[in-house]
Amino acid sequence: MKPEILTEARIQVGKYIAEIMKQRQINKVDLSEKAGINRQQLDFVLNGNREYTIDTFLKVITALDCYFFLADKEGQHLNFEHMQKKANPDKSMNFD
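Request: output the structure for the sequence above.
Response:
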């Protein structure tokens, strides 16, 4: 995938997260503390102009009580419940 496509995707994700923050009246300090990341990491996500880890992304969306869904090209959603059971059959995942 071309780097400029990845950069644009990160920028759009950052804009979306910033809009959620605005709607919920959450500032950067509070979100970074709740997510357990530093402000620079949050800025990377919000600005989209630097690479960040999937772990950082997951911490941010979890702190916002948001979730993301994956789908294949035909629009079939990833079966998260099946994936959860396969990864940890004896326990259910807790996102709190």
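The longest helix spans residues 3-24.
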